[in-house]
Amino acid sequence: MEAKKVYYRLTGIRAFLFQVIFTVNAIYFVVEAGLNPLQLVLIGTIMELSIVLFEVPTGVIADHVSRKKSVIIGTILLGLAHLLEGAVPAFWGIASAYAVWGLGYTFLSGAEEAWIADEVEGKGLDKVFLKGSQIASIGKIAGIIASMIISMLFSVQAAILIAGGSFIILAVWLWFRMPEERFEKLEREESSQLRQLAGAIHKGYRTVKGHPVLAGMAGIALMWGLASEGFDRLWAAHFLEDIQLAGSSAVLWFGLINGIALLLNIGVVEWISRRLNGEGEQTYVRLLLLVNGALAASTLIFALSGELWLALASYWASFTLRGLNSPLYSIWLNQMLEPKGRATMLSLFGQLDAIGQIAGGPFVGWIAFSISIQAGLFATGLLTVPVLIFLCIAGRYASSRGVSKSSGQEGAG
């Protein structure tokens, strides 16, 4: 089968299966497994820690053995993780499942994109990724509908187990249908990958340290990580326990909440992406200031909301604004970086976000457990405020030229 067709089907089916699970995950965690706020956040922390620990070792498979095998292994592990999650409605079972999930994700991370890039030899890759993203969006919407139907006909647990088993079937299909004809194994270098990573991080740190704009952007990535994990794990618990959505209608409500949030995010990101074309740094700084100021406000309102209509409006606003952050920040960051060393710097900023999530999750979870879920969510809103400070710092030094060019002029001076 043609590689692009396999890629589109893989992207769409996986997005569909993930959404079947994620639509009802919160109900399963809170209602079926009875997890408290701290346990909810710790699950996310365990997953992120697993990703950070295994990101480099599993990269060896994709680079030195086979991209196809790496994708298949990752898909199998995701399936096993969700089967374990659905089979054991208890903290230890779910936590173990998400440790396995993190491992599985690292096998997929980068391998799938590298595989399709190899197979199409880089031709029309932007169009391939764009179409894949569009198919994934359709898969997510279909997944929400399927999750609601399965959960109402059978149970929330059944939806998770069916999707988990389907990941295994998907892996078997990939084994027979996924072509790999243009993969070239990398020769192992004398220095270990861990040593290379340490060197790259040190080099990235020196680059950031010497440039106020990048230093501000690094602070933004870290604070986003600190704020995001708590929100991701507690928003649903707020609806279930504080707004009292638990009950027979919970599945329908969560399908509606997720569906509208997804459609809003797709629409707003598409709208703004069409209007941004080669804008200068100051434009992105102003937009990010506006988005994150509104995000902090909407998150605080969501935390304090006791009425359903206010909780819905503020959650949808928060979800949509968070969805805008990623493309705006990515465009701005890529403008700042020269092609040489760009991958290293992007990896460094990604690690800062992950570190923030690992550090911020337990802190917010402890607040939610000790005081209330609303207090935990309020803390995530407050953690967004320093982003505005870092944006002001970065914006003060921002110019229309890249960092490397600026550094060259400073060095010449």
Descriptive account of the structure:
This protein has 413 residues and is mainly alpha-helical. It folds into two domains: 1-180, Up-down Bundle (Growth Hormone, Chain: A); 193-404, Growth Hormone, Chain: A. It contains 15 helices and no strands. The chain has helices spanning 3-32, 37-65, 67-87, 91-108, 111-119, 125-153, 156-177, 193-209, 212-242, 250-275, 281-304, 308-336, 342-370, 373-397, 403-412.
Search tags:
mainly alpha, Growth Hormone, Chain: A, about 85% helix, about 0% strand, transmembrane transporter activity, MFS transporter
Q: Spans with pLDDT under 50 lasting ≥5 residues?
A: 400-413
Q: Please, what is the average pLDDT?
A: 85
Helix content: over 70%
Number of domains: 2
Number of helices: 15
What's the story with the biggest beta sheet? none
CATH superfamily of the largest domain: MFS general substrate transporter like domains
How much strand content do the residues show? under 5%
Determine the N-to-C terminus distance: 58 Å
Q: What's the β-strand tally? A: 0
Q: What is the H/E string?
A: HHHHHHHHHHHHHHH
CATH architectural name of the largest domain: Up-down Bundle
The structural class is: mainly alpha
Assigned CATH class of the largest domain = Mainly Alpha
Q: What is the name of the CATH topology of the largest domain? A: Growth Hormone, Chain: A
- From the spread of the alpha carbons, the general shape counts as globular
Computed Rg: 22 Å
